[in-house]
Amino acid sequence: MDPSLIPLPLEGYVLDDAEEWEYFGEGAANVLYRYVGADPFFGPYLLRLRKRLPGAPTTQQLHAYLHSRWGPLLDNYLLRTEIVKLGINIIPDLNSMLAMSDAEEATDWSGRPIKPLKKRRLLDDTESWGLVVEDMSCGNYLYNEMEMQPESMQEDEEMDDAQDDGSDEWKDMAMVEFKPKWLAQSPNAPANWALCRTCAVRHMQSSKKQTKGLLCVPGGEDDDLEEEALDFCPLDLSSGDPTRIEKATFAILNMENSVMIADPTPPSDDEGDNDTPAPPTLNQKLAKSLENSLVTLLTNFFRTSPIIPLLTALQSRFGSRGVFTSATLALMGEKDILPSEDEIRRACLATGEKYEPTLSDEDDIWTAMTLRDCSLFLKVWVRKRRGRGMEAKIDAKVGDLDLKGGEGGRAVYWRDVERRLRMGGWYGGKGSTRNCRTGQEL
Ligand SMILES: O=P(O)(O)O[C@@H]1[C@@H](OP(=O)(O)O)[C@H](OP(=O)(O)O)[C@H](O)[C@H](OP(=O)(O)O)[C@H]1OP(=O)(O)O
Ligand SMILES: Nc1ncnc2c1ncn2[C@@H]1O[C@H](COP(=O)(O)OP(=O)(O)OP(=O)(O)O)[C@@H](O)[C@H]1O
């Protein structure tokens, strides 16, 4: 690990006032907060705090890993992330708030339910550091507009019409979030594969669900099998073929909770008894126009941006010998934990392989796993300038690049999935009418 790549903690800040942070959302391992205090510095950021999970890496370890491992690989595509010192009160106070909130009703900043409920856990109260991450959510322009308008104008229904001429201001109108998964085929797939790793796993999992459905009592909870959401094939996305890219884009945009367009509808005036609906505001017109053009806009982005080719190249490079090589098998053993440097050295001695103090990229299964489970955030900015049509630009950032280490190393799970995919014939296309190599239906 190169220490010169790791930025110092935010200077002059010790976060200790829980009242300045509003719940934003959470995953299995972290809770995110949005700043509601007076310091403009934190406006473009979110605070990301670790939950208490046995064996999880500390925030300092995550921060060091993020910058030393991913900084050189992803450069500007790495989600901006700083580390900040926490005071002794903030975690206990935020934990009290979490404990008081109703887990059943929990929703994130955009109203999406927090699922599954078992993800709910308290923050690690032994942690004295937090991460400050670039906020990729959308709709922040609406807060800025509200702040900039004098009160009398906010109530003036004519105001938006007056602005219809447009302005130079970019508005963060939409956000797209998805996991780019396996953009290159798994090296453990058999030579005659028809399905990619992601589609093969989906077919295996959905067949398991269907078997469960057949076994349950009719009318029971599990009997109500939801129709499978349209899933995207990562090989379509990385194919370079415009038709396949468009197909993947359409599927991504139709996945549950992958896209969010901020609703610019002004709060309704309950006192008004006006039957005639107000004409759409400029923001509403822009949002509608964006909604209608999102597939085209994103297809074009995926065709021209270097981000998908970059992630594909990295996925091809890390873990390119798969999880069944003698080196990685020896390293994993039957335990789901990271081996120590000494264990790696001894394993190499036993298999007769050359010992290298750091794993070579091909055998670096931990980086490979992280790379295939990260999130791609796209923030879509829109503006309408005087006398011109709608203009859009997209920021792409890669997040959730947490080290899959400790008890969550998942190496054994990974090997088992590969084994089940091969043994069950899922790579061969069982249960599918599609060929991921060509993108064609069979
Ligand atoms: O195995 P996969 O491909 O289904 O990926 C798992 C993810 O499932 P999904 O993206 O929904 O298909 C899964 O995501 P969800 O919990 O389903 O949101 C996790 O990210 C899991 O990683 P970890 O075990 O928490 O470290 C992921 O496991 P890893 O394979 O990355 O270890
Ligand atoms: N920088 C960000 N900008 C906007 N939204 C974010 C950002 N980081 C996280 N989120 C939102 O919060 C959710 C949870 O965050 P995150 O993925 O960091 O948590 P996690 O605990 O690591 O998740 P997982 O369940 O994958 O382990 C994300 O799915 C995303 O919707």
Give a topology summary.
Layout (H helix, E strand, L loop, with lengths): L13 E2 L5 E6 L3 E6 L9 E6 L8 H16 L6 E6 L3 H11 L28 E6 L5 H9 L2 H4 L4 H4 L8 E8 L18 H19 L18 H4 L4 H13 L4 E3 L20 H23 L2 H11 L8 H7 L8 H11 L13 H7 L3 E10 L5 E10 L11 H13 L10 E2 L4 E2 L1
Parallel strand pairs: 1-5
Antiparallel strand pairs: 2-3, 3-4, 4-6, 5-6, 7-8, 7-9, 9-10, 11-12
The chain binds MYO-inositol-(1,3,4,5,6)-pentakisphosphate (5MY) and adenosine-5'-triphosphate.
InterPro entries: Ins_P5_2-kin, IP5_2-K_N_lobe
GO molecular function, one term: inositol-1,3,4,5,6-pentakisphosphate 2-kinase activity
Function: Phosphorylates Ins(1,3,4,5,6)P5 at position 2 to form Ins(1,2,3,4,5,6)P6 (InsP6 or phytate).
Describe the model:
The chain is α+β, with helices and mostly antiparallel strands and 442 residues long. It has 2 domains: 133 residues, Phosphorylase Kinase, domain 1, CATH 3.30.200; 248 residues, no CATH class. It is 34% helix and 15% strand. The chain has 14 helices and 12 strands. The strands form 3 sheets. The protein has a 6-stranded mixed beta sheet. The chain has a 4-stranded antiparallel beta sheet with strand order 8-7-9-10. A hairpin with a 3-residue loop joins β2 and β3. It starts with 13 loop residues before the first strand and ends with a strand. About 6% of the residues have low confidence. The structure holds MYO-inositol-(1,3,4,5,6)-pentakisphosphate and adenosine-5'-triphosphate. MYO-inositol-(1,3,4,5,6)-pentakisphosphate binds next to α14.
